[in-house]
Write a structure and sequence with these properties.
Elements: E1 23-24, H1 25-37, H2 43-54, H3 65-75, E2 87-88, H4 99-107, H5 113-125, H6 170-182, H7 186-205, E3 210-211, E4 218-219, H8 225-239
Antiparallel strand pairs: 1-2, 3-4
Helix pairs in contact: 1-2, 1-4, 2-3, 4-5, 4-6, 6-7, 6-8, 7-8
Length: 256
């Protein structure tokens, strides 16, 4: 297909109990990173259609008719949320505010400087990193939402403010620090790093998988090594020591 983007079914990526399907932000941000890292063909086309499809609120429209129809559908009657949409298909789209997907879009080089600053301001303005970074959804889906699926309530796990539906994930908090550092928001990055250290240190450095987005109760598994890994990446970024050894796909020149 001429969009050069990946398509998927629901609950098929990191957010494995979320109803995102069709063209999904998270998966396609990583797909673009793979293309650029391994010099795969049509990376520029992926970049182009990614921005037109997941942020359809600009004046210019895609020249490709299928992409143009998706853009019209996704933005009809909608205001620009300041973020990329979490997914787009011909039946629905995601305006819940996928924090992780938007952070990856910045760090993988899909968002230009203006878009990166806009996304960072939107996420920061929602207080999504207080007191700990970071809630992975800005507007959790409730049972009344048309996107709600019965499987989201399985094991009482993905209710609003829980798990992938607005829970606090320290693992993703490390990427938030990287974005702040990249966008030149040094004071905010240092503050977020302190908060990230604090959440990982809870319960004698439990490195908790995730916390309830409102009650802050620790949930999930302990001893999450990816929490530690992104904390070290965040520390390097704040100290100005980030480089290829820190994961070059996520360490890019600062925003202008």
């Amino acid at each position: 297909q001429r969009l050069w983007l990946l398509q998927q079914n629901e609950a098929s990526d990191w957010a494995d109990i979320m109803p995102r399907s069709g063209y999904v932000l998270y998966s396609n941000a990583l797909w673009y990173a793979v293309k650029t890292r391994f010099d795969l063909p049509q990376a520029e086309a992926t970049h182009h259609h990614f921005n037109h499809l997941f942020h359809p609120f600009e004046r210019d429209l895609s020249a490709y008719r299928r992409a143009r129809l998706l853009q019209h559908y996704a933005r009809r009657g909608q205001r620009d949320p300041g973020l990329y949409l979490s997914f787009v298909n011909f039946a629905s789209f995601g305006a819940e505010g996928d924090v992780f997907g938007n952070l990856l879009a910045i760090l993988c080089g899909l968002a230009d400087d203006t878009a990166a600053q806009r996304i960072a301001r939107t996420i920061d303005g929602a207080a999504s990193a207080e007191p700990y970074p970071i809630r992975v959804v800005l507007h959790p889906l409730s049972r009344e939402d048309e996107l709600w699926r019965p499987y989201m309530a399985r094991h009482e796990q993905n209710h609003p403010h829980q798990y992938h539906n607005g829970g606090i994930w320290p693992f993703v908090g490390g990427f938030w620090v990287l974005v702040l550092a990249r966008c030149g928001m040094r004071d905010a990055a240092r503050d977020a790093l302190r908060r990230l250290a604090a959440v990982n240190a809870l319960d004698d450095w439990r490195f908790t998988e995730w916390l309830h987005g409102r009650t802050l109760a620790p949930m999930g598994m302990a001893g999450q090594s990816w929490n530690a890994a992104t904390f070290l990446l965040a520390l390097r970024a704040v100290e100005g020591r980030a480089g290829r050894q820190a994961g070059d796909v996520f360490v890019l020149p600062p925003c202008a």
